[in-house]
Design brief:
The complex is a heterotrimer. Chain A is mainly alpha-helical. Helix content of chain A is 68%, strand content 3%. Among the domains of chain A are: 346-637, no CATH class; 652-694. Helices cover 74% and strands 0% of the residues of chain B. The chains are: A mainly alpha, B mainly alpha, C mainly alpha.
Chain lengths: 733, 183, 97
């Protein structure tokens, strides 16, 4: 393995270029983590970790009871609160975004070097040291740079930089300011580790690391129990998925003897096409993906993860971390293309998740919850893409989604920021995230309004915005593969794969319709109609500072033109299939294998029909929402009546959390309490083992002491009997 | 050891062996310590005779001098010194059940030892027949014992002297009547 | 005469053992131990005739140890008697745990 790597590195077109500095990519955020973490630790003794009573940042409005208890005393209407800014805030706001910007610059330089190096058939693997040499297991600390990881690195560092800059404004008054940036930097470090690792264990380290950072950031305001619980939920649910990932790794090692991507790719063919083993491996890998990327049945943690700061939701729970599962499948394309049944499962789960989450999004009132379910739904689309073998489409949607969903989340952050400020000025304790308390914000926040509409049009699939291209490509990919592919020939539960793929296409269209509806609903309720914030609060509503709107503008541009990265052939101009061509060395072979060796070619008419159908669905959704919704009739949250009928089911998220609670959590808790605690712990371990061993020692000791009669004669008897036994043993030998 | 032992020798060997056993049986069954001690002396004399017949004249002499002479006399002295004659001291044997059990244990032990003594020793270790007797003829009875004792086992011999010294000191200390004693 | 010697030796030893097991008088017990030592000595001497004279040297050492033991043991018995006015071991249980 080592020799092979060395040889590959020696002759690789990238050796000797700036790509040699790839190790610096993750190390820069790690450096930022160290600096910000130290700043946070140094100040901890002065300010306490995060006393919510000191909090004056916008987080007080993030879905929970406001924290400004201390200000309740200030009922004299003083608008000038003593804003507590962290003593190292300046340091953190320089270091935090700067390391990301540097990392992004380096990524760009490496990207240009890759472009300059021309055709790059094999990945550029840099081995740094032997990490786990255990028997046959040889795991190196090695980075693998190829077209796929390059795309991910650019997305992570690029979007990450923008979100870091946005956070400078959003989190400015938070007492845990350096801690926040430390976590965020650490997250980027692990995320880069995840996408750059040259083997599954290294990817897994990143995978777990981002999970840790996600947990830390969801529970960032941990003094509020709901936030800490949300963090725990995310952590625990992800463990279920990680179990699958681990099993998949064990199986890979047991059968192929290696865990590096190049090694597994080389040996994958020996697993056999469509075999039970490769299907099992892929299904276990996908179980890991359902945890990390919030798919049915493990999606429940992601909506709760909105308890974290909004930029965190944008970066981790929309743009990057949750797409790790998509990346994993794209990275393991050589395995999934061998397992059509597993791929069908991926497509089906993805499609169902897309529809299911979109339906919940229809009736949420919390602006972030809408976006959270939208994220789950869009991730479903990505899985439909990578599952059906349209790896490029999946990654393309991952990229455009990173743009428009980050924009949407940051935009919502901007709205929440404004809302919170307004409430803060008047000591109003209303929910700053509930759309029923918003309305008509377009008048006060022009920039945010325009940019969020761009993102909404993009996610709804309106032509020539980025989401249109990527979503269309996924839906088209599924449709074409339903006609001719290994998936279509396979059977799942006895149902032909082509039926399932057609069904998924229809589901995808339905989800697209719902997406357009709930997004338009969100925009209308938030920005249009009359304002419901309150008369006194209204005059304090204002646009966020430039440090927040700046990143929004950049993301808005990317959301609008992101489709240019991979224009379909239908468009008669521009760089056609840019991303497809770029990713060809990584996924090309697998894509062809899924489609039986021929690129899915649709006739011009069919392709046009598919596009028209998708566009029509999207526009129909927008129109439907626009015509049906009556923002004038809405009342603020505290006066709003409860939901009725089916809307109530949707508002309560199909009662999935409750069902999980009944079906899994409560049995586990009662089993733990009744059987494991009372029975095993108190009864068996404490009673029998601990007390029992003590009793046993007591009895044995008592019996022994009874032998010590002090009578020499007794001792002599015992001695002689012992001699008899010993000599007897010799005799009988 | 000659091939064909004279009948006289064999007769005497068995005689002294039986005397030793019978005396030993009488020794353990007598109630009076003095009587028992005297029967033990008888056993030791018989053993001394056996030693002589087994080409160990020096050991036989030591048996008479040290064991029968010195040690047993000390025993008798102590018995008489403590005046262990009165009835409570005499009835010292355990009950019938214990005696039967002890007999059983003794027989079992005997059986085990017999079973063990059937083990074969390697031929190469055995000396030629009559070797010891010839050596005694040639060099006298002391030399064969004195040779190894002062060469190979010299260290053990010297340590034994320290042991004896320690025993003497210990006996004196233990036997001394201290001022704090009751009487 | 090796076999006969071993037979006598074994019988004498077992008589000594039975004596130890049945008697309670400390001095007689002691003498039983001496009898057992003598039985072992007989084995040593008998084997010395067949396997070399070193066995007799061991008899010599055993006698020395027996002498030392008798000296110390009798001193202990005297001290014990002084303390308890008896040598019957049934009445002596200072070691009781």
């Amino acid at each position: 393995m080592l020799l092979q790597h060395a040889a590959a590195a020696g002759t690789h077109p990238l050796s000797g270029t700036i790509a040699e500095w790839v190790w610096l990519l993750p190390l820069l955020p790690l450096l930022g983590f160290v600096i910000n973490g130290l700043a946070s630790l140094l100040s901890a003794s002065h300010l306490g970790p995060d006393d919510p009573s000191l909090a004056h940042g916008p987080h007080g409005a993030d879905g929970h009871a406001p924290h400004d208890g201390a200000d309740a005393h200030g009922a004299h209407g003083d608008d000038h609160h003593p804003v507590v800014r962290h003593r190292y805030a300046t340091l953190a706001s320089i270091v935090g975004p700067a390391v990301l910007a540097l990392s992004f610059a380096l990524a760009l330089a490496i990207f240009l070097a890759m472009r300059g190096a021309g055709e790059m058939a094999s990945p550029f693997v840099q081995t740094y040291f032997s990490w786990m040499p255990v028997g046959d297991l040889q795991v190196d600390a090695a980075f693998q740079l190829d077209q796929l990881s390059m795309v991910m690195v650019l997305i992570i560092t690029g979007v990450g930089t923008l979100i870091h800059i946005f956070s400078v404004g959003y989190m400015q008054d938070d007492p845990g300011y350096p801690r926040y940036f430390a976590y965020l930097n650490l997250f980027v470090f692990f995320m880069l580790l995840l996408v750059l690792g040259a083997n599954y264990p290294l990817l897994f380290i990143g995978w777990e690391g981002v999970g840790l950072c996600s947990y830390l950031l969801i529970g960032f305001w941990f003094s509020e129990k709901a936030n800490a619980d949300a963090g725990k939920k995310a952590f625990i649910v992800n463990r279920i998925g990680d179990f699958g990932f681990l099993i998949a790794m064990f199986l890979l090692f047991a059968n192929l003897g290696t865990l590096s991507f190049t090694g597994v790719q080389a040996g994958a063919a020996s697993l056999g096409f469509g075999g039970v083993l490769v299907t099992t491996i892929c299904l276990f890998l996908f179980l890991g993906c359902t945890g990390k990327s919030a798919q049915i049945p493990l999606y429940v943690w992601l909506p709760d993860a909105m308890a974290g700061p909004t930029p965190v939701s944008a970066l981790i729970h929309a743009a990057t971390m949750v797409t790790a599962g998509v990346y994993l499948i794209a990275r393991s394309n050589f395995l999934f293309s061998l397992a059509p049944v597993a791929s069908l499962v991926v497509v089906l789960i993805g499609a169902l998740t897309a529809l299911f989450a979109a339906s919940i999004g229809l009736k949420q009132w919390d602006i972030k919850k809408v976006l959270a379910y939208s994220t789950v739904s869009q991730l479903g689309y990505m899985f439909v893409g990578v599952g059906s073998g349209a790896y490029v489409a999946g990654i393309f949607h991952l990229m455009t989604h990173a743009f428009f969903k980050a924009l949407l989340f940051l935009g919502s952050g901007s709205v929440i920021f404004a809302m919170h400020r307004a409430y803060h000025h008047t000591h109003n304790h209303d929910d700053a995230q509930d759309m029923r308390n918003m309305g008509g914000l377009a008048r006060y926040m022009k920039v945010t309004w325009v940019l969020m509409w761009i993102a909404t049009l993009a996610i709804s699939g309106v032509p020539f915005f980025s989401g249109f291209f990527s979503k269309d490509e996924i839906l088209g990919g599924v449709f074409l593969r339903a006609r001719e592919s290994t998936l279509a020939e396979a059977h799942l539960f006895g149902i032909p794969g082509s039926y399932i793929l057609y069904l998924c296409y229809v589901i995808g269209l339905a989800a697209a319709f719902m997406t357009a509806v709930y997004m338009t609903r969100m925009m209308i309720y938030t920005f249009h109609g009359p304002n419901r914030t309150g008369d006194r609060e209204r005059e304090h509503l204002a646009e966020a500072p430039w440090v927040m709107t700046g990143p929004l503008v950049v993301l808005g541009i990317l959301s609008a033109v992101g489709g240019w990265f991979n224009l379909p052939k239908l468009i008669p101009f521009g760089p056609l299939g840019g991303l497809e061509h770029w990713l060809e060395p990584v996924v090309g072979e697998s894509t062809l294998r899924v489609t039986n060796g021929v690129l899915p070619e649709a006739s011009h008419g069919l392709e046009l029909a598919l596009v028209v159908a998708a566009v029509a669905i999207g526009l129909l959704g927008i129109f439907y929402a626009y015509s049906q919704l009556k923002p004038d009739r809405l009342v603020p949250k505290r006066e709003a009546p409860g939901e009725e009928g089916f809307a109530r089911v949707l508002n309560n998220k199909w009662y999935v959390d409750e069902a999980y609670d009944k079906a899994i959590v409560q049995p586990v808790v009662s089993t733990s309490r009744g059987l494991l605690w009372r029975g095993v712990d108190t009864g068996l371990i404490d009673g029998v083992m601990v007390t029992g061993s003590q009793k046993l020692a007591q009895v044995v000791g008592w019996a022994g002491s009874q032998l010590q009669s002090g009578q020499v004669g007794t001792y002599a008897w015992v001695l002689v009997i012992g001699v008899l036994a010993v000599i007897g043993a010799f005799t009988l030998r | 050891m000659p091939e064909h032992l004279p009948l006289f020798y064999v007769f005497n060997f068995y005689l002294f062996g039986l005397v030793a056993i019978v005396s030993a049986l009488l020794f353990v069954t007598r109630k009076s310590p003095v009587t028992a001690a005297l029967w033990l002396v008888n056993t030791m004399f018989s053993l001394a005779a056996l030693y002589v017949m087994l080409d160990a004249q020096f050991i036989g002499a030591m048996q008479v001098l040290v064991y029968a002479g010195a040690i047993m006399v000390v025993f008798l002295f102590v018995i008489m010194l403590l005046n262990l004659g009165h009835p409570s001291e005499l009835a010292d044997a355990r009950g019938r059940g214990w005696q039967m059990a002890a007999a059983l244990v003794g027989l079992a032990l005997l059986a085990e030892i017999f079973a063990l003594s059937r083990a074969q020793s390697p031929e190469s270790l055995e000396l030629p027949a009559g070797y010891a007797a010839r050596e005694i003829m040639a060099t006298g009875a002391i030399t064969p014992v004195a040779g190894p004792l002062f060469n190979e086992y010299l260290l053990a011999f010297e340590v034994t002297s320290i042991l004896l010294l320690a025993a003497v000191v210990g006996a004196v200390v233990l036997g001394k009547r201290r001022s704090g004693d009751a009487r | 005469m090796l076999a006969e010697s071993l037979f006598f030796s074994a019988v004498l030893f077992c008589i000594g053992v039975v004596g130890v097991l049945t008697r309670r008088n400390a001095i007689i017990l002691f003498m039983c131990v001496e009898l057992m030592l003598n039985a072992v000595n007989l084995t040593f001497v008998a084997f010395a005739q067949v396997y070399g004279v070193a066995g007799q040297v061991f008899v010599f050492f055993v006698m020395t140890v027996a002498a030392a033991e008798a000296a110390v043991g009798l001193a202990i018995i005297i001290a014990l008697f002084r303390h308890r006015q008896t040598v019957n071991l049934q009445n002596i249980n200072l070691l009781k745990g």
